[in-house]
Amino acid sequence: MKLTSKSLLFFTALMTSMSAFALKNDTNQPINIESNNQSLDMENQTVTFTDNVVITQGSILIKADKVVITRPPENSNKKETVDAYGRPVTFHQLLDDGKPVDGKANKVHYDLGTEFLTLTGNAELKQLDSKITGQLITYDVKKQQLKASGSSKSRVKTVLIPAQLNSKKK
Question: How far apart are CA 165 and CA 7, in angstroms?
Fold first, then answer.
């Protein structure tokens, strides 16, 4: 696929700054978690939600088969990690400009302390009809750096729809 440098630069900036442009009040909203089952392991500091897990926070919607939240030891100056599993795990969020961002993967790992997101297995990030797919997609929220990797069986694929990327809202 041949891209102009302007389109590639715009797409890269768009995909790597999703979190920075997410609805500003999403992270201040209550986190709601629903599932068919929940278990708490005090010794290992984990809470596990299984079967039809639905997490909402503001415009954020995550659906998974299983979600494990791990608290770090006290006084470790670390934050929680979240691991979500599914076939696939899906998430949806609105950006401040009103455009939706959707993603999916077989496993999603998020480290709240380092603000590092990892999508593993049939990973995809999509905004309207523009998308990037690969076996592994990582996103460093602080540095706003996105990387996508393929596998021996599939390469990273990017589809750009310039008219949609440049429009204000759909």
Answer: 9
Q: Is 16 left (phi over 0), alpha (psi -120 to 50) or beta?
A: alpha
Cβ-Cβ contacts under 8 Å for 94 (sequence gap 6 or more): 22, 23, 59, 100, 101
CATH of the domain at 147: 2.60.450.10
User: For 62-84, how does the pLDDT look when each residue is reduced to its tens digit (9 = 90+)?
Assistant: 999 999 999 888 888 888 889 99
Domain containing residue 43: 29-161
Q: How many domains does the chain have?
A: 1
| Phi, psi dihedrals of residue 115, rounded to the nearest 5° | 50, 55
**Residue where the block lists tokens 């996508």:** 148
Predicted TM-score (pTM) of the model is 0.77
Query: For residue 11, is it within any domain?
Result: no
- Domain for residue 42, yes or no? yes
